[in-house]
Amino acid sequence: MDEKKIESSMGELENKERDTKMGKKYKALSKKTIAIVVGVMILAPTGVITYTKFKDSNETNSELVSREREYEVKRGDIIAGSNGSGSLKLQAVNQNFEEPVEIGELFVKEGERVSIGDKIATISEKFINDKLEELNSQLERATATLVSTKNNKQVTVLNQNKAWEDKVQGSKNQYESQRNSLVNNINQLTDKLNDVNKKLEDVRRQIEEMQNLATARNVDENHVLQENSTVEDTNLLQESNETKESDAEEIEAKLQELKLTESTLLSEKSLLETEIKNTNQSLNSLDVERTKEKESEVKEESANREINALTNSELDHSINNAQKEVDKINEQIAKVNKLKENSTLYAQIDGTILNLNYTVGSTTSSEIPIVTIGENAKVFAEITVTQEEITKIEEGQRVNLIVSAYQDQMLEGTVSFINLKPNGQGSSVNYSVMVEISENDLKLLEGMTVSAQFIVKDVKDVLTLSNKAITLKDGKQFVQVKQDDGTLKEVEITTGFSDGKISEIVSGLSEGDTVVVGG
């Protein structure tokens, strides 16, 4: 009997059951009853369903149906959780050359399996050689610029120092020249003054001698007059006086001459002293001006240093930039030489080529890898979960999975990442959850479909029974246990954890017991 006929028969039986009392196994319609029993056995996960049809010879349209379901008490696990579905994702490993290059040759295709050490791609040899030639040319120009910049600074610094030293030395030389001239002038004037003083001293000595001589002559004359009073003596005295008068006049004339010389020398001395004084004042003024000039030079030197520092800083900046350019090009040359030594890209893992982003002759970039390899040893499942279920899921949560290609094998996994950015909007909002699948021996491929159950709670190795076999009376739970002789016995039970379909049996039943519903 096919499934539709079974459902039709079940409908008829349920209608008849509404006209009969529940709990009896059979109901007699007539003494002359022709019983036609059609037994249909439908195997279900939790029991056996039996359909019996009776036909009364007197009431041909009357049927009696009795339905009986059996559920076995088994030992097993009960799992409650949230469900979702999605597809497998391999752990992706991106591979690329360290620098952008031109692809010379490719050895793989998308979807192809590779092993560690397999060739993926090579760099164009022409690209390497052209790049090195270009960089070496740039290096020559950059090195020339660096040398020129350094020389420019050296010349500038030398010119700065020379200009300042020339100015300072010029001021110093001018001062020393003027000072030496004044000192020499003072020395010459001093020598002249000393000479005048000597002459003056000599003249004064002569004047004093002449004055003393004149005084001595006057004394002698008086003495002679007193001692010679005779006529003869008087005559002699007169002659002597005449001689002395002549000498006195000569002395007086000499004395006047000496005094005139003294006066001249005094005038000359006064002029020399005045000139020496003025020259000393000029010398002092020159020294004062030089002191001020040196103070000004110190300030000017400080200002020049700041100006020169700015200039030198700009020059240093230019040198640094030139040096950086040289260093940069040298680094690029080193990188290209390294690429030349390692011009072949090899597979780093065993896996499947998921993406091949370039063709021969194309130029790579740092942002887009040459190849993406899915690691066979590490597989993830990307599961779509509804907004009602996502709140029950957390990282580290255990997950049971069934891959469509392997329906008879359950895999285990762990939630590794929850993407809280929603997919969709309105009432159909979903979220993506990444599940890392535990190690297994299956050949899992990128894109295979998978269903998942995120375990919220579970109990292991407990007695289980279908909830359909349990009835409630006055807040207590009862079941009809089938005895060895086929009779039924009502037993009170205690249940524990339930997933909504199966319940844990805590007490009242044993493993292997058969519980009957209906009859």
TrEMBL record:
The entry's keywords: Coiled coil, Membrane, Transmembrane, Transmembrane helix
Q: Where are the transmembrane segments?
A: 34-52
Q: Where is this region: Disordered?
A: 1-22
Specify whether Cytoplasm is a keyword of the entry: no
Tell me which Pfam families the record gives.
Answer: Beta-barrel_YknX (PF25990), CzcB_C (PF25975)
Q: Does the keyword Membrane apply?
A: yes
Which domain of life does the protein's organism represent?
Bacteria
Q: What is its main location?
A: other
YknX-like beta-barrel domain mapped to chain residues = 384-452
- What is the source species? Turicibacter sanguinis
Question: Cellular component GO terms, alphabetically?
Answer: cell envelope
Its annotated compartments are:
Cell envelope
The name this protein carries in UniProt is HlyD family efflux transporter periplasmic adaptor subunit
Task: Give the CzcB-like C-terminal circularly permuted SH3-like domain ranges.
Answer: 464-518
Parts forming coiled coils:
125-213, 241-342
